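RECORD TYPE: protein structure
NAME: Foldase protein PrsA
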Amino acid sequence: MKKRMIAAIGLACLTALAACNNEDGAKDDTEVIATVNGTSITEAEFVEELKAQGGSNILSNMVQRRVLDEAIETVEISEEEIEAELEVFRTEFQTNFGTENDEDILEVLKTEYQLEFESMDEFVDEYVLPPLALKKLGSEGVEVTDENVQTYYDENTDEFIELEASHILVEDEAAAQAVLDRLEAGEDFAALAEELSTDPGSAANGGDLGAFKKGAMVEPFFNAAVALEVGEISEPVESQYGFHVIKLNKRTEQAFEDVQEEIREKLVQEQSKTQEQILAELMKEADIEIKDEQFSDLFKTETPAAEGETPATEGDAPATETETETEVETENE
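PREDICTED:
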């Protein structure tokens, strides 16, 4: 989420730069903007210094934003799509900054990122619409059938199973076998976890790991847990953390009807072009003419990408919404 937020702020900065450019265009370049011991610094001198220090990056960002603005106008985006994306952002800001309403979000953008938006509508124009437009452009021509969705569900059933389990983590197989021996003798699983488990994140809770799905635990652990019946205890399971004795407490399988749209979206995303690819294509198709000789080679220095590769683009690209799956057995281990 942090990367997503930073990229979003970067995108907003592109717009801010463009706005600054438009405002400055009306100024007289001989206007004095500061004096030092009676010596003037003019608007023209200031602009030349900006060009020398970071002009290529600023111009590149402004050109990309102009190209992106034109592309947005060609894409139909519904109010429902906008609201859904905005709701994700509200949730993220509430989690990270404790915001309670849109006014709080605007204040955080101002105080934390030095970005001012007069309203959420303005924010939507600058942040929500660009990634949505690129997402739609990237999925043009992609077709996912009902059969594709059903096949994915049938072939990846483990993805749609939620497990609740407890475990006892020990150093070696002999210690794990000793745990099993004590369990077979009638000792309580939770009590043994508190006594013996080396997992500080779950030992105090009797080894309880709560609910998890595929991808949240290391593969050997999940594969062993998903094969158990509710109430069953596993043989010793080895992972990079040591040896686990696992008890399955609950198993919930999601019905196809409940996840079919999630699967469809996943399949569309997998077949779609990335936002970086789309932006690179838009830049390639755009008629860009640089009038200032200082930046005449700005869009001529890129090496053409090999077939199947994505051309590199300068500047920030709009954020993509990605979910990062935890690949360690537990955060506390």
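COMMENT: The chain is about 50% helix and 10% strand.
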